[in-house]
Every structure is written in structure tokens, then in C-alpha cells.
Protein: Glycerol-3-phosphate acyltransferase
Organism: Campylobacter blaseri
Amino acid sequence: MNANIIMYIIAYLLGSIPFGLLIAKYFGNVDLLHSGSGSIGATNVLRVLKEKDPKKAKIFGLITILCDALKGLLPIIIASFMGFDINVLWTMAVLAIIGHCFSIFLKFEGGKGVATSFGVFLFFLPIEALIGIVVWLLVGKFLKISSIASLSGIFSFVLLSFILHFDMVGINTHAPIFFIAFIIVYKHIPNIVRLIQRKEDKVA
């Protein structure tokens, strides 16, 4: 089998691992798919587990974010050291996001893809990614609404990518970034509807 295809499959399968679901199940004895918002992301891990132990909930929420970010970042780093082309790396990034949002282990359902996106973006555009993470954290801290924080962070990243890396060295296109942003917005449509209806829950 072609080496590129093998890396694509690995990126998708690793991206598909529902770390939030596993962490909540084995450390909190909770099924995230049938608790809280039903999402497998860190926000739902925090929301559900805080009912049992608020301090541990924050720790497990943070661990979920790190795991979701690293499952996108580490395969790309390894592939880079192995000498794979930048186009292959970007394709792996997109597939990692697709894996998280449409996991083969969850009947092609999944999370919102924000943490995994920032994980892969840290490799390609670290300055933009770090600023996007800061925006994400600050908006989340002051507004206490995870969806607004996530979308603000992603939009900030996309805007900064045009300002700081308009030419996108190596691929000469922002297409992968737009595609990833589109997936994230698509997965947030229910949240956007609730925001419009002023029914979106805050995270304490």
C-alpha cells in the first residue's frame, strides 16, 4: 500500500479516538453520549463530571483537551520527521479533524473538532494557533459560553493566517484551513441556533 495512504488512514483513525468519552467512562463512570449535551468534548466532560467532583472535573477536562490536541499534532510531527511532503501533512491534518468529528468508532458521529484543530495548527502556524488559543480561553473565561469561545478562536486563527501567512508557503492555498473551519462551524450549527434563541448554556 502507498505510504501516503497509510499515513492518511493512521491520521483518521487516531483522530477518531474519542478520548473524552473514554476518560469520562473510566474515570467518572459516565457515558458522555447519554449525559449533558451528548458531546464527547472537554466541555461536556467538565459539565458532567463536575456534578461528582468539581476539582477532578477540571483536571479531566484539561486532559481531554490535551489528548484531543495531541492526537492531531503528534502524527504530523512524526510524519514530518519521516520526510513526508507538506501536502501530505496538511491532508493528515484535515483527516484528523474529520476523524474526530465523524469517528468510525462512534458510527461517524463525534465532537466539534476545536482542540484537535488547534493541535494540528500548532504545527503549521504556531503563532496564529497560540493567539487563537488565547482568544478561545479569554472569551470562554469572560462569557462562559464554550461555543462562542471556540468559534471566536477559530475565526481569529483564520483571519491571522491571512495576515501573517497570506502566501501559505508550501501549499500556496488556505483551502485546508477553510475546510477545517467549515467542519467546525458545521458541527456548531446546533449551538449557533441555541445562541440565536438565547438558550445556549453557560459553563460554570
User: Anything to note?
Assistant: The chain has a mean pLDDT of 93. The chain has one domain: 3-196. The chain is about 70% helix and 0% strand.
